[in-house]
């Protein structure tokens, strides 16, 4: 785990729920294939240090097929084919950000390094079994991740603020449960980008443009998220 997150989340590691979660994961690893690989479970924390977070994109649980999950929500490493949800995210980025051209790769690492926290509510999953690690303790832990952002020193004077992308009811319910102050932060709600629901309000939501407008207004011009870093990175 990245040092900034390890320091902020250290109280969680000794709590009973986290000990139970560890025991569950040890048993799961003995009996099943688990994604992502152990070294990638906390990759989000290394790529996006706590103080660098400008935006949070909350997913549910990791992709559960071979060669997909690597610790960032919605992201897959090449040569994995783009999942449907990510294709729709790229479509909306192309509509919102003139300099963005959809890359052929699904690796969102450059955006994680640019301050976008791609977080799942569950950080592991059993192979080929969606939601198999839900309600085992991860949700409590990732709630603490979000609360750590809300309690950063930079938020204490009321001048901070983060963009929270709440795509789909599970993400919206998580943010509501935590109680994000929408006077201080921007919460952008819409349908999920999944092909099953994207046409019901995700496509056309303008979220990436709205996020950058808010960040520019809040922090000053030039403080927006450089979404087009994906385009440049894919070109080498």
How would you describe what is shown here?
- This protein has 236 residues and is α/β, with parallel strands linked by helices.
- The chain has helices at residues 3-13, 16-31, 43-47, 84-96, 109-113, 138-150, 169-178, 207-219, 229-234, and strands at 34-35, 55-59, 116-120, 125-126, 163-167, 186-190.
- The chain has one domain: Uracil-DNA Glycosylase, subunit E (3-Layer(aba) Sandwich).
- The chain is built from 9 helices and 6 strands, in the order ααβαβααββαβαβαα.
- The strands form 2 sheets. It has a 4-stranded parallel β-sheet with strand order 3-2-5-6.
- It is globular.
- The model has no long low-confidence stretch (mean pLDDT 93).
- It comes from Leucogyrophana mollusca.
- This is Uracil-DNA glycosylase.
Topology:
Blueprint: H1 3-13, H2 16-31, E1 34-35, H3 43-47, E2 55-59, H4 84-96, H5 109-113, E3 116-120, E4 125-126, H6 138-150, E5 163-167, H7 169-178, E6 186-190, H8 207-219, H9 229-234
Helix pairs in contact: 1-6
Give the amount of beta strand, in percent. Answer: 5-15%
CATH class category name? Alpha Beta
What is the averaged pLDDT score? 93
Number of helical segments?
9
Helical fraction: 25-40%
Q: Remind me, CATH topology? A: Uracil-DNA Glycosylase, subunit E
Adjacency order of strands in the biggest sheet: 3-2-5-6
Protein name: Uracil-DNA glycosylase
Q: What does this entry show, briefly?
A:
The chain has 236 residues and is α/β, with parallel strands linked by helices. Helix content is 39%, strand content 10%.
């Amino acid at each position: 785990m990245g040092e900034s997150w390890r320091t902020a989340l250290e109280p969680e590691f000794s709590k009973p729920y986290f000990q139970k979660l560890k025991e569950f994961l040890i048993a799961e690893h003995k009996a099943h294939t688990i994604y992502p690989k152990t070294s990638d479970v906390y990759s989000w924390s290394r790529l996006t240090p706590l103080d660098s977070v400008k935006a949070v994109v909350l997913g549910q649980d990791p992709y559960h097929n071979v060669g997909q999950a690597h610790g960032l929500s919605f992201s897959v490493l090449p040569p994995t084919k783009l999942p449907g949800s990510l294709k729709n995210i790229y479509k909306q980025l192309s509509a919102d950000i003139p300099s963005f051209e959809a890359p052929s790769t699904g690796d969102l690492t450059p955006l994680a390094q640019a301050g976008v926290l791609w977080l799942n509510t569950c950080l592991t999953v059993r192979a080929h079994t969606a939601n198999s690690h839900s309600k085992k303790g991860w949700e409590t832990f990732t709630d603490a991740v979000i609360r750590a952002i809300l309690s950063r020193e930079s938020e204490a004077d009321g001048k901070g603020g983060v963009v929270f992308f709440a795509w789909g009811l599970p993400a919206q319910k998580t943010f509501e449960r935590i109680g994000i102050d929408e006077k201080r932060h921007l919460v952008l709600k819409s349908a999920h980008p999944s092909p099953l629901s994207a046409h019901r309000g995700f496509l056309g939501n303008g979220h990436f443009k709205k996020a950058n407008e808010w960040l520019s207004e809040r922090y000053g011009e030039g403080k927006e998220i450089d979404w087009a870093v994906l385009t440049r990175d894919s070109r080498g």
